Amino acid sequence: MSQASPSDLATLIAAHEPDILAHWLDLLRQQGALQSGRLREGELQAQCRTVLHRLATALAAAGTDAAAPDYAPLRDSLTEISRSRALQGFSGAETAIFVFSLKQPVFATIERNRGDARMVWDITQVIDTLGLHAFEIYQRNREEIIVRQQQEIAELSTPVVKLWDGVLALPLIGTLDSQRTQVVMENLLQSIVDHSAEIAIIDITGVPTVDTLVAQHLLKTVAAARLMGADCIVSGIRPQIAQTMVHLGVELNVVSKATLADALALALRRIGREVIASAPRA
């Protein structure tokens, strides 16, 4: 008995496409594909139907060469599915299982129709290649999402606040590193230009520790602000941080105040403003 050819495999899958689709959907439901609520029944059915139909078409046109141009529509579908699942919060394993779980219904169809081991081996290679493609696309999109979220968090964690005409405040929270310092500097310099600010208060109350590296980052920010024509005041230096800086021999070479309120009062005096307490209203 001669071994089955790739065309026999393509014919078999195309002829039993509805049965394979139903078996695949049942298997995905059992594996909990719909339990999280991130994917609706209709969307799952559409994805499975498209992938299976394009697989049968590609097998008929190009055999088991999953890198062939005829597989491009199928790869495009998997790319779109992987991208949407990355955005929906699916894990990489869930995305790969979506593709790999197709093996079981295809194997069952081959067995029922007395296909041989060659068919099983051929479809295994094809599905494995497609599953790896889906996983790589998912991984790439997750990395892009993480990078974008990190950038958004960095921007949100370094707001520049206008306290008074000509006075800005930059409250820092968390550790300063080179990348974040760049974001801080860009935001501050742009705000100095936008508001024609004369004084910028850099508040480090929320910075847990100040070491030599953090001090260097602060000095770079202060120097850049001065080049834009704004004086800087550093506020929020706690006793522990002051002691640490003395032990390390760190010199900020900039006016500093213990609290943001003290820094604001100094800034107002510098621009010729004064806060006067008024009598309480009856």
Automatic annotation (TrEMBL):
<protein>
    <submittedName>
        <fullName>STAS domain-containing protein</fullName>
    </submittedName>
</protein>
<dbReference type="InterPro" id="IPR002645">
    <property type="entry name" value="STAS_dom"/>
</dbReference>
<dbReference type="Pfam" id="PF01740">
    <property type="entry name" value="STAS"/>
</dbReference>
<dbReference type="InterPro" id="IPR025751">
    <property type="entry name" value="RsbRD_N_dom"/>
</dbReference>
<dbReference type="InterPro" id="IPR051932">
    <property type="entry name" value="Bact_StressResp_Reg"/>
</dbReference>
<feature type="domain" description="STAS">
    <location>
        <begin position="157"/>
        <end position="271"/>
    </location>
</feature>
<dbReference type="Pfam" id="PF14361">
    <property type="entry name" value="RsbRD_N"/>
</dbReference>
<keyword id="KW-0597">Phosphoprotein</keyword>
<dbReference type="InterPro" id="IPR036513">
    <property type="entry name" value="STAS_dom_sf"/>
</dbReference>
